[in-house]
Amino acid sequence: MKDDMKDEDVEHVAALLKTMSHPIRMRILCLLQDKELTVGDLRSEVKTSNANVSQHLTILRNKQIIASRKEANYIYNRIADKRILELISTMKNLFCPAK
Amino acid sequence: MKDDMKDEDVEHVAALLKTMSHPIRMRILCLLQDKELTVGDLRSEVKTSNANVSQHLTILRNKQIIASRKEANYIYNRIADKRILELISTMKNLFCPAK
DNA sequence: ATGACATTAAATTAAATACTTAAATGCCAG
DNA sequence: CTGGCATTTAAGTATTTAATTTAATGTCAT
Question: How many domains are there within chain B?
Fold first, then answer.
């Protein structure tokens, strides 16, 4: 019996994946892998509006996937959970072999 | 520069996560980790209708996440991609520590 | 062929998501 | 305190997704 994941865990993991499963959010998370970035920084890497980037960051922040730090009139965003870094790293290894 | 994931890869991974991000589909994948199961088998583990389980299996099959084998009047489903197994395993380790 | 069971398909309804635009907030410099 | 920049919020619309119900398909056993 290897399937020992509780209903609660299944729900939690599914919700996490759902939050990560949007291309823009996925891209944002990749960009945040090794540094802090502002909305403006991200905006220049992701083809959409500032408002839209901000909305996606809010979604990620609400799920505790990222955290933010305010400095002057910039807000720096970073990945808040090391497990997310591991997960992204694993997915890169599995699905982006020829990098 | 560590962010070397191409747009195409981001799209692909996001789509994969999206497909896996439904609680019922996540549960199904966990149940299929080490064995083949039919719609009926799965139905008894997941609280929903046969038709609904079948629909979720179709979604997973269309994305090549699972494959099916017909024998008599049963259809046995299994995980088609070893990378999915690795991914599930990683997520279990990361997010279900107290198992 | 007929009946029973497993699975799929179609259609409907309800609900959640995403993006755009425009207005609002917060902060600093001068 | 006023103007400008960075960011967030709100409103509105369009799209996607999910579940239920019901009908259809296919296969085996008799």
Answer: 1
